[in-house]
Amino acid sequence: MPINTNSSSITRIPYFIYGGDYNPDQWSPEIWLEDARLMREAGVNLVSLGIFSWSKLEPRPDEYDFDWLDRLMDLLHEHGVSVNLATPTAAPPAWLVHRHPEILPVTAEGTTLWHGARRHYCPHSPAYHERARKIATKLAERYATHPALAMWHVDNEYGCHIGECFCDISAAAFREWLKTRYGSLEKLNHAWGAAFWSQLYSDWEEIHPPRKAPTFANPAQQLDWRRFSSDSWLACFEEQKTILRALTPDIPVTTNFMSFHKPIDYWKFAAREDLVSNDSYPDTSDPEWMVHSGMACDLMRSLGNRRPWVLMEQAAAQVNWRQRNATKRPGVMRLGSYQAIGRGADGIMFFQWRASRAGAEKHHSGMIPHRGTDSRTWREVKALGNELPKLDSLLASQVPAQVAILMDWENWWALELDSKPSNDLKLLSQIYSYYKPLFERNITVDFAHPASNLSSYKLVLVPNLYLVDDPSAASINRYVENGGNLVMSFFSGIVDENEQIRLGGYPAPFREMLGLVVEEIVPYQEMQTNTIRTSDGKQFPCSFWSDVIRLENAQALGTCEQDYYAGSAAITRNRFGRGTAFYVGTALDPGGMDWLLQQVCETAGVQPISPKVPAGVELLQRSDGSSSWLFVLNHSAEKVTVPFGGHGLDLLTGRQVDETLELEPAGVAVIQLGSAG
Ligand code: GAL
Predict the structure, then answer these.
(1) Residues 418 and 545 in one domain
(2) I want to staple 39 with a disulfide (CB 3.0 to 4.6 A). Which of 44, 78, 103, 526 is the partner?
(3) Is 157 a residue of the active site?
(4) Which ligand 1 atom lies nearest to the CA of residue 52?
(5) pLDDT value at position 254?
(6) In terms of Cα–Cα distance, which of 207, 222, 194 is closest to 412?
(7) For residue 446, is it within any domain?
(8) Set 164, 273, 313, 387: catalytic member
(9) Average pLDDT for residues 659-672, to the nearest whole number?
(10) Of the residues 49, 278, 279, which should be mutated to test ligand 1's pocket, given the most ligand atoms within 8 Å of the CB?
(11) Rounded CA separation 140/138 (Å)
């Protein structure tokens, strides 16, 4: 797959990646050979090696033991397995903590988080950084020319377990970050609205992280703290990437993301990676698991600017960290894998190769379960690994999307800060309420940053863009003015980047575009509802929130029926420039959402991949300049007949298909369209 590096080097991995995290240091060397042999048998061609091996690689300060890793690198290479070599910096060894207890992270309440699990480090600790740089350098020096080295896996899941550290070292780093951002205390005081509650600062040393306080901490301070913490993890990554890039300029560098992970602004991170990789653990006992995992896939593709990405971790069967850990039923792991590929992944990997026999994750599944190879899990893992090479022709192809949902971490942080009209307003569930009906219609969605160029999309959805800076507001307005179609939902355009209200009537930067002003906002109590009557005579319930809207140029498509604002608009449409802007001042029920999407898709000319497919069937498409592939996934428990209105070759069965396709429950087809076989 082409990996678009930030430097001048482009690395190609010309096959579908298949493999998993490999932790051989947890096992005695006697089984390494069997591991390598079984990897071959299962079609494994890449393993992420040594992610948590620091104490094994450097058992005492500056005393390194690479012999075991040398043996493994050679062994894997001999068996045709490449290595995604990890820097082991997510789990600092006990000796480092013992010598430098100040590397331990501290919570907002002042509690130190101790050694004994993982990710027990403060991202600002000089002692940690010094040691992390050293071990990353040693690894890169030693394996720079090793033929097994194919990729770098930096650290593991930045921001997992702890998103922020509140220690004194972090406080000092925060002050430096603020000095760079604001330059003067006067500007900081202004941006933070520090005149409120007598919070004006007269010396940088007076500033602290938003530690546990008697009540709500300054919101702008909290927001900057989030930005700073996210930047700090990125700095950890960048530091190691610089080392690796210098020593191995042609080896792509990634770090594994965690789907929608709040502490880290993945837009910024992805821009610094050679390729995006993700860990995805949907709860398959949830009947909507495929919608959740589909949404994560679409985010990953979008973060990487539509470049192919890698599913770096998934479970072969069950995880160990939920209250009740559902196992994946027969065919479900395969369905999830093809879903990722259909949504742009060029690699499928697992946590982990062999299920551990000791430690906190021994009840987590592996590609080889405790039971060994005489098991359903192994059979499914092996079958998939041997099937994927059939898809080599679609490597590096892309996933076309006509619709984008705007997603911005800064907005996420600000929207969910305390002291809001409704503290139950959560960004992801609002995004999900728009994403799900599109998923069900088989309409592929990208995620886009609000400041990005949106002109390639027929339709842009903007759920709850509470915080918006001037360039993003201008870009959104421009999109509609130039002919775009947009849906914006309530509590958007409320504050600027400093969490300060944009005066001039909500939603000030979008009033003209939307042709309305929101006079009041009415957050609902838990059981409170209202109904909406549409201009074409439909009626459906709404809940959670109502904006009391005064129309300026917009036309009401639906009005509220109850309460003191009965008769006022709840859903509107406005022509703006050459485009159309819809506004939704409430939370619609699924029926209402369906109705709305019908209207907006019609206006925007957005079509599903194929109009009439049975419920539970997911359709996806990848294409390059000359070919297109249709992915058909049957999530239902029934055998289905899927009309897809074309003909082609099912790459998985090698059979020609015309017009319709029959699929068993949990069945998958990947049809090369127009191909005569
Ligand atoms: C991931 C992590 C892995 C493993 C896995 C278990 O978050 O990167 O190391 O812990 O979860 O599901």
Answers:
(1) yes
(2) 44
(3) yes
(4) 9
(5) 97
(6) 222
(7) yes
(8) 313
(9) 96
(10) 279
(11) 6
Q: Kindly report whether the global pTM for this prediction surpasses the value 0.85.
A: yes
Work out how many domains the chain is built from and give that number.
3
Q: Using CB atoms within 10 A of its CB, is residue 60 exposed (0-12), middle (13-18) or buried (19+)?
A: exposed
What distance, in Å, lies between the first and last C-alpha atoms of the chain? 24
Domain range for 560: 403-604
Domain check: are 425 and 513 in the same one? Answer: yes
What is the rounded average pLDDT of the residues 529-546?
Answer: 97
The candidate with the shortest Cα–Cα distance to 356, out of 665, 657, 33, 51, is 51
- 362 belongs to a structural domain: yes
In a domain, 198, yes or no: no
> Which stretch of DSSP H or E encloses residue 672?
strand 668-673
Q: Are residues 471 and 339 in the same domain?
A: no
Q: Is residue 1 part of a domain?
A: no
For residue 156, how far is its CA from the centre of ligand 1 (angstroms)?
9
Q: What is the CATH number of the domain that holds 332?
A: 3.20.20.80
Going from the Cα of 17 to the center of ligand 1, the distance in angstroms, rounded, reads 19
- For 318-366, the pLDDT digits (tens) are 999 999 999 999 999 999 999 999 999 999 999 999 999 999 999 999 9
The pLDDT value recorded for residue 14 is: 80
Instruction: Identify which of 333, 444, 341, 329 has the alpha carbon closest to the alpha carbon of residue 390.
Output: 341
- Can you tell me which residue has the tokens 């069965």? 653
Residue 34 known to be catalytic: no
Contact 48, 84 (CB under 8 A): yes
268-325 pLDDT per residue, tens: 999 999 999 999 999 999 999 999 999 999 999 999 999 999 999 999 999 999 999 9
What's the farthest any 2 CA atoms get from each other in the chain? 77
